[in-house]
Amino acid sequence: MKDFKSGTYINQGYYKSFQPNFINRSWKIDNMEIVTLLSKADRMLGRLDMYSEHIPNIDLFISMHVIKEAIQSSKIEGTQTNMEEAILSKEDVPLDKRDDWMEVHNYINAMNEAIKLLEQLPFSSRLIRNVHRILLQGVRGEHKQPGEFRQSQNWIGGASLNDAIFIPPVYTSIPELMEDIEKFVHNENIFFPELLKIALIHYQFETIHPFLDGNGRTGRLMITLYLVSKGILKQPILYLSDYLEKHRNSYYTCLMKARTENDISGWFKFFLTGIIETAQNGVKTFEEIMALQKENEEIIKSMGSRSANALKVITELYRLPIIDANKVATIANITPASAYTLIRQLEGHGILSEVTGSKRGRKYLLKKYFDIFDK
To answer: What are the structural domains of the chain?
Structure first.
């Protein structure tokens, strides 16, 4: 790591682009602080991954993790959607906020689709392009070659190449640079800890900036996909964007210092600290979910003949914690009148809260569950 050389600046006439060096090579860890952080990060990930095996129906709870990740990753890029808006259907979102809502939901769709694709595809450029195509579908950037590597020069910061903070490599070198990442991912002859590997891959991807738009979101999504593809996580339950959004300036500074000062160790420390903090928060979240689930089940048991229907409704709300009377009627297979009676009873027990304040089209929130994620 002491000998790390990020790359060189290439004169392109009236600007200089940055040409990163390949990463598919042997690496030596010579920083004890990184070794210590790596050990702690591995332990915390192991604790978090235990919940994949010990929580029944864990897929119910993953959807809210993905929603929060989508919001925070998109927020780094400037969108303003919050948790309350993200769980609404498109029709219930004000017109002036629908573009941001769409970007968040594209991220959710991209993550869900990519997890499915991992069953058929390896972690690869093809997978990354598929993710990117979904991210840019029908939103700002939809005309910037979704799913295709760029065919022109881009830049980071500033209004033009003249005042850019950073200018990535020329587009003609993208295929070989992305191929180098792919080789590094699958090179079994090089031993390098997987967490440092994905830290390096994320850094390199953001440095290459292979797409005209959506590079940040794609690169952050890749972190979770990599951990799942390598079996480090059995389920996609670790999302770094909340940490990266809270430390946005440090995030960009560490990436830039790796490029301009060859300080890859600083980036690794920042990344591993993020893994540790995020995994700790993930463990706490699952502990809170399990405690709330137990509390809800105890209340539901006391509801007599309505217990079975109440359990069906609450179980569905763990996936998306907002509902109306029509959906309650559908889930429980009961009449609208019975649905309202059930809702009133769940409100009385403090499980559901009415959030629209209207007489018609009322929506109800699984408030305590929602609050676990809305922090």
So the answer is: 7-285 (1.10.3290.10), 302-373 (1.10.10.10)
- Kindly state the average pLDDT of the residues 197-208: 98
Nearest to 207 by CA among 24, 21, 71, 374: 21
Question: What was the pLDDT predicted at 141?
Answer: 67
pTM of the predicted model over 0.90: yes
3-state secondary structure of 7: strand
pLDDT per residue as tens digits for the range 268-282: 999 999 999 999 999
pLDDT tens-place string over residues 248-270: 999 999 999 999 999 999 999 99
- Residue 72: how many CA atoms within 13 Å on its side-chain side? 22
For the four alpha carbons of 241, 243, 246 and 248, in that order, the dihedral sign comes to negative
Q: Which pairs from 303-312 meet CB under 8 Å and 24+ separation?
A: 303/345, 303/349, 306/341, 306/342, 306/345, 309/334, 309/342, 310/342, 310/345, 310/346
DSSP state of 20: E
Give the CB-side neighbour count of residue 89, counting CA atoms within 13 A: 7
The number of angstroms, rounded, from the C-alpha of 135 to the middle of its chain's C-alpha atoms is 12
Instruction: Write out the H or E segment, with its range, that includes residue 354.
Output: strand 353-354
pLDDT, one tens digit per residue, over 319-372 is 999 999 999 999 999 999 999 999 999 999 999 999 987 767 889 999 999 999
Reported as type and span, the H/E element at residue 345 is: helix 336-348
Contact 107, 73 (CB under 8 A): yes
Best CA proximity match to 231, nearest among 360, 49, 15: 49
Query: Would you state the pLDDT for residue 258?
Result: 97
- Count other Cβ atoms within 10 Å, centred on residue 59: 12
Helix then strand then coil, % of the chain, to nearest 5: 60, 5, 35
